[in-house]
Amino acid sequence: MWKMPGGGNQPAVSSQQLGGKGDRKQRRRDAQAATVAAKVSAQAVYFWQCRAQAAARPARSSTPATGLFDGMSKSGIRFDDYEEVPVERSGPGQASPPALASFAELAVPGWLRANVQRMNYAKPTPIQAHAVPLALDGRNDLMCCAQTGSGKTAGFLLPILAQLGAAQPAPIAADAPCAPAAVIMAPTRELAAQIHLEAQRLSFGGGAIRAVVVYGGAKPRPQLQELAHGCDVLVATPGRLTEFVDSGVVSLAGTRFLVLDEADRMLDMGFEPQIRRLVLQRDMPPKSRRQTLLFSATFPHSIQQLAREFMRHYTWIGVGRVGSTVSAITQEFELATNDKRHKLQLLCQALATKRDSPAALALVFVQKKHVARWVANQLCKEMGVSAESIHGDRSQSQREAALAAFRSGASPVLVATDVAARGIDVPGVALVVNFDLPTTKDDFDSYVHRIGRTGRAGREGKAVSFFVPGYDPKTGNGKIAPLLAQLLQETGQLCPPFLSQVRAPAAPLAPAPFTDTRSEAQQKAPPRQPRAPKRPPPPPQPSGLPPAGAAAAPAPSPAGSADAAPPEAAPGKRRRPRRGRGGGGPKPSAPA
User: Fold this and answer.
1) 402-453, pLDDT tens digit by residue?
2) Residue 585, by phi and psi: left (phi above 0), alpha (psi -120 to 50) or beta?
3) Is 479 inside any structural domain?
4) Which of 34, 41, 48, 62 is 20 to 30 Å from 457 by CA-CA measure?
C-alpha cells in the first residue's frame, strides 16, 4: 500500500503504471487495438444487417449488361502469331488431356460460349489452350508461367465458371458468413479490379453466379454489402481478405478453387505471411480437397517453395521464355542522361510519333512518385496533352478516376509507378515509355511487366526506353544492359551498339597468392618460442645525488618561511604542480 500526497490509501501499482515512456507506448498500442477492434465490430454488425436483408429476397441480382462489353474490339489482334510460341508441359498431365484447338471444342454452358464470342476470342492463346482443359479435368493442380499479356486471366476464369455454372446456387442464410467457392488473390487493387471485370463479362447470363472484388484503400461498407448478397467468385488482395476473414464475415471453408495470380509480385510486396495464414492457418480446405491454380510471369525459387506447400501433384505449363515478352512488341532504346529535363525532351519526341493516331494511348513509367507528378504536369505545359498520374500517394478514388479517364481516352497519357505495372489491361495502349529503367538485375522483371502493357492479346505495340549508361546504384542502367541485349536477341530485334558493347565493371584485384619459400625441414620444424622482452637499463643518475633507493634527508628550512620547499615526492614519482589561476606556485597569503 502507498499513500498519495492528498491522503488516502491506494492500491499498490507497478512502476510501469506510474508513468514513463514504456507506459505511454503501451497505452498507444492499447488505444490502437481498441480502435481496430471497434472498427471490426462495426463492420461485422453492418454485414449481418445487410445479410438479413439479402436473405429475405427471393433471388440474387445478376450482372448488369450496361457497358459491360464496351471497348471489346478485335482490331489489331494477331492470334496467329501465338502459334509459333513454344510451350513446355510436364508433370502428371503431360500427355492428356490434349491442348485445346478451338473454343468450340469446350463442353461448357451456352452462356459461357456466348460470352467468349462477345469478347472476340477467335482462338485460344497457348496458355488457354493448355490450362483450360487441364483445369476442367480437375485431377491436378496447375503451375502456369506465361508471357505477360497472353490471356492468363481467361485461362483460369473459364474452367472455374464452367464448373460453377453446372452447380445449383445455395440460398443465402441470414446467420452464415459469406463462403465463396472460388478465391482469387491478386497483389494490387488495379489487378483485382481487372480480374473482377473479366469475371463479370464471362459470367454474364450465368444465372446466379456472382463475382465480388474486395481490396484495401477503399471504404469497406460497399464491399460488405456486396458480400452480404452472396458471392461465388471472390477476387481480393491479401490484406483486405485477411481483415474480412478475421472479422468473421468471410469463411474460406467452402473454397473449391484457389487462384494465386501474379504470385511472384505478391511475394515481392511482402504478402507471403498473410497468404500463408489464409491458406494454412484458417478454415480453408487442405490442398487435397481443393484445386489450386498458380499463375505467374516469372518463376523464382520462392514461388517453387510456395508451390510445394500449397499444391498437390501439379502440372507445369511454360509458354515461351519464362519472364519474357511477346514478339509483337517493338522495343527501342534512347541514350539519355540522368537529367529529368533531358528525358522529358525525349518523351515529347516519343509522344509526337503517335499524333497520327490520337486515339492511341501511351503509358509512361517512372521510378518515384514525385517524378510521376512532375512529368504529368510538364506534359500539360509543354505539349498541351491531358495527362494523368497514378502512384502510391493518390487515394483509391483518385486512382480509379485516373484509370477511367485513361481508358476512355479523355487523358491519352498516363504516368505511373510500378503500382500499375501489372494487371492493367487497357485496350488501345500502343506505346509504353520507360522514363526510368530499373537499375539492378533483380528488378529486371519489372521491365518485362511494364512493356507488357502494350501488345496485349497479340496486338502490335511499341516500347521506348531511356537508357542511362553507368553503374550508379540509383540512376545507372549498365547492370541490366546484358539482360536487355539478350532479350532483344531472343525476340529477333535489333540491339543498339550502346547495349551490346557495355561491359561489366572490372572486379577489384585479388591479393597475390602466398608462396612459402622455406625448405621442407624448416616448414616441419616446430615454431620458435617468442623471446621475453628485454628490460630497459636504469636511467643515469646525475652527479652529486645519492643512488636510487637511498633515503635523502632534505635540508631543514625555517617554519613559515616563504622559501620553504615542498616535501620531496616518493622516489620514482614526480609531484604534479598545483593547478590554479595563478599558476603552479604557492598560494599567496591573505593581507593582514
Assistant:
1) 988 998 889 999 999 876 555 566 777 889 999 999 988 888 878 887 887 8
2) beta
3) yes
4) 62
Calpha distance 480→485 (Å, rounded): 9
Cα dihedral value 550, 551, 552, 554, nearest 10: 170
Q: How confident is the model at residue 24 (pLDDT cuts 50, 70, 90)?
A: confident
CA–CA dist 186, 350 (Å, integer): 32
Q: For residue 367, give the C-alpha cell.
A: 521510378
DSSP string computed for 63-117: ---TTTTTT---TT--GGGGGGS-EEEESTTSSSSPPPS-GGG----HHHHHHHH
Q: What is the pTM of this model?
A: 0.69
| Set of cell numbers at residue 394 | 493518390
Indicate the burial class of 346 (C-beta count within 10 angstroms; 0-12, 13-18, 19 or more): middle
HEC sequence for 527-567: CCCCCCCCCCCCCCCCCCCCCCCCCCCCCCCCCCCCCCCCC
Q: State which residues form the domain around 118.
A: 42-319
Query: 28 — phi, psi (to 5°)?
Result: -65, -40
59 burial level (CB within 10 Å; 0-12, 13-18, 19+): exposed
* CB environment 445-457: b (16+ within 10 A), e (fewer): bbbbbbbbbbbbb
Three-state DSSP class for residue 195 = helix
For the record, the C-alpha cell of 294 comes out as: 498458380
Domain termination site, one of 319, 339, 358? 319
Q: How many residues appear in the chain?
A: 592
CB-based burial, 10-28: b 16+ in 10 Å, e otherwise: eeeeeeeeeeeeeeeeeee
Structural domain contains residue 96: yes
The Cα–Cα gap between 193 and 530 comes to 77
Residue type, 427: P
Using DSSP, state whether 448 is helix, strand or coil. helix
- The bridge status of strand 329-335 relative to strand 291-296 is unpaired
CA geometry: angle at 242 spanning 239 and 243, to 5°? 90
The answer as to whether 590 is a domain residue is: no
- Which of 285, 319, 353 is the last residue in one of the domains? 319
Share of the chain above pLDDT 90, in %: 33
Total tally of structural domains belonging to the chain:
2
Pairing between β-strand 257-261 and β-strand 291-296 as defined by DSSP bridges = parallel
Are residues 78 and 328 in contact, defined by beta-carbon separation less than 8 angstroms? yes
Q: What share of the chain is helix, strand, coil (3-state, %, to 5)?
A: 35, 15, 50
- Locate 359 and state its grid cell: 486515339
